[in-house]
Specification:
Order of helices and strands: EHEEEEEEHE
Helix content: under 10%
Shape: globular
Distance between the termini: 27 Å
CATH topology: Pnp Oxidase, Chain A
Structural class: mainly beta
Number of helices: 2
Radius of gyration: 17 Å
CATH superfamily: Electron Transport, Fmn-binding Protein, Chain A
Length: 148
């Protein structure tokens, strides 16, 4: 018998999953309703904390300063009916790409680089994750994280 397990992912494992990704979704509120758009990102880690760096076009739906946002990355294995999701909640802020050599050190390398001249970071106040997996043996839960 196959048991379905639904587990929380710890903070360190959430960061590990964020390190290996490059595409996520950011949610902002516009006119009182949520809007979710895909973005390329890069996890930035430093002595002062962690941030999610992204670039966008000036004036785009994501081009906001000091705005509350949610950011999500995930992976789904449809064949196995397993997957994981990491949710980052925080504040979106504009940054100067020339400060601290940010442009060269933390470029998320957008898939569509044209006019992506607005640099932003999400300063998280919460990083959480969940994993759905099956345990075919019915024994101890799997601790394997998969990245794709």
């Amino acid at each position: 018998m196959t048991d379905v397990q639904f587990d929380e992912i710890g903070y360190d494992d959430c960061l590990e999953l964020l390190r290996f990704g490059e595409l996520g979704r950011v949610a902002v509120v516009i006119d009182g309703f949520p809007v979710i758009v895909p973005v390329n990102y890069r996890l930035v880690e430093g002595p002062g904390g962690v941030w999610i760096a992204l670039r966008t076009r000036s004036g785009s739906v994501v081009d906001r300063d000091r705005a509350p946002v949610a950011f999500e990355v995930d992976h789904v294995d449809h064949a196995k009916r397993e997957g994981w999701s990491v949710l980052v909640r925080g504040t979106l802020q504009r940054v100067d790409p020339e400060a601290a050599d940010f442009r060269h050190r933390f470029d998320p390398k957008p898939w569509v680089p044209d006019a992506r001249d607005r640099w932003l970071v999400i300063e998280p106040f919460a990083v959480t994750g969940r994993r759905l997996h099956t345990d075919a043996t019915g024994g101890a839960e799997s601790t394997t994280l998969f990245y794709d």
